[in-house]
Amino acid sequence: MTLINSPVKEFREVEEMRDGYLPIEKYGLVGDLHTVALIGINGAVDWFCYPHFDSPSVFGAILDKNKGGTFHIEPACGEEYSRKQMYFPETNVLITRFLSPNGVGEIEDFMVIDPKKPNGTPARREFVRRIQVVRGNMKFKVLCKPAFDYARATHTTEIRDNGAVFHCEALKLHMGLATEIPMKKREDGAVEAEFTLTACSGATFVLAGYNPDKPNMHVMNDAQSEYAFNETVAYWHRWLSQCKYRGRWREIVNRSALAMKLLTFAPTGAIVAAPTCSLPEGIGGVRNWDYRYTWIRDASFTLYGFIRIGFTEEAKEFITWLRHRIHELNPDGSLQIMYGIHGEHELKEETLDHLEGYRNSRPVRIGNGAADQLQLDIYGELMDAIYLYNKYGTPIDYELWDDLRRMLNWVVDNWNQPDEGIWEVRGGRQHFVYSKLMCWIALDRGIRLADKRSFPAPRKRWTEVRDQIYEEIMEKGYNTERKAFVQAYGSDTLDASQLLMPLTFFVSPTDPRMINTIDAISKELMSDSLVYRYNVESTNDGLEGEDGTFNLCTFWLVEAMARSGRVKEARLLFEKMLSYANHLGLYAEEIGPSGESLGNFPQAFTHLALISAAFNLDRALGGHNMAA
Question: Measuring CA to CA, which of 87, 337, 393, 549 is 20 to 30 A from 220?
Fold first, then answer.
């Protein structure tokens, strides 16, 4: 290994960069079930919050290329080179490769997970970036430039013989970068280095929390980094071995399961909707939200996905988190739509006006004001998940049932209110058909659960209201002129959320009304193989700007078609949709007009919908989904 003492050269822009930003789909993800890091195909860590998913960012260049902070490792050679990125098979260990005529180098990125611990949490939480040259020689440059608290807090930098330490007094947070490579301090508080590696040589950088009372940093030598790598690989292999899916799309289903696992918070069992905030649903637009929280809806569907393919332990951990939230019902018996990963009720929304936003998409928001909305659909998704957990996981206890009974009584009294709906519109409450559908699901699953377990319940009252909701949906939610279930009572606007009607057994997938609805959505909300959630021009959602196609809606259409017997159409749609995954098999929330990823990334809900669609499409094709 040769050290370079001259100033580090500027980092090279990737060809696909726009406005100085990598496309969202050019990122990979590593994590340790407490937080994650987004790592670009150029070797840059452009999003990393510490110590948890919802903590302030340490690196946030994905939201401001100049101020946000980054941890960038890339070749410094003057010759041209190409970039590749992959996961070590069946793990969440990310490998970024740089290939040039004179050498091939790799960065192995992972967060240490202990396979001997039930939730994988090691004694020391470490983010490891291991550089190796596998052919020839290659010069590398490293820049570690933290910008604490979304670039709002200053820090001091201390150079050590074995790395550098960053002190942020405002957050009482200290981060250590341990390495055998000598680092140089810059005037802006960043550190950098440049060095050359030859074949079969390497260098390791370890980023971790630093305790000033224990000043020694953990520098990994080659043997130690290899051990940490092998232990982390072993954890992921052991975890994934529980997957019961054996169908045609095993590789992509496995990747979706691994992505969903990365979005679980081990200390509480909570599941975040996505690990990022304010990645735009339209470039330059205002639809930029913070998804680093646990939505009752998203997490309940994710629970269904875990149960579907055999991960009952994740379901158990989430149910534990969920029962605490159910035990904290509002005085009237209702739930919030989302909570913090530790169970926080207050998720104050604020804008970070000092950040320019991804490709100038403002405002940048943290927190989420939708937490105070009324979204009646959450009760159906919650009860469906608990019903399935009771059936395929562990029977629920009486105390949980007692809280559920109180909650369902609230649904009986409030199902006929207008609400903001599944899409969290900010244009006023309406009688959304999907919300009524989910109130029907809540009572239907409650009745079934009470009967299955012989729990005490006001069955007569619940049954009467359930049937009343059903008939009202058929009367007011189906537009006879449009020949389709519509978005809201009195509306003629279509909404892709109605595709869940046959998936939740509200109607038969071959019911003429459902067939008509599938046809109408395919005709009016689908662009080639991609489905919009609704038409923004005919929906008063209270927001400006364009909306991309919603990935989960496309997977819903695949499943609805497969269940209705249109299997060939469903398979073609599914295969096309798989082509929109990024190079690692990951999906953001939406897809733009040129096939680009939009919205927070990766999104748990999308990967759950993929798993469900693959499972049911495989079954419709005559496949064997589950292990014998």
Answer: 87
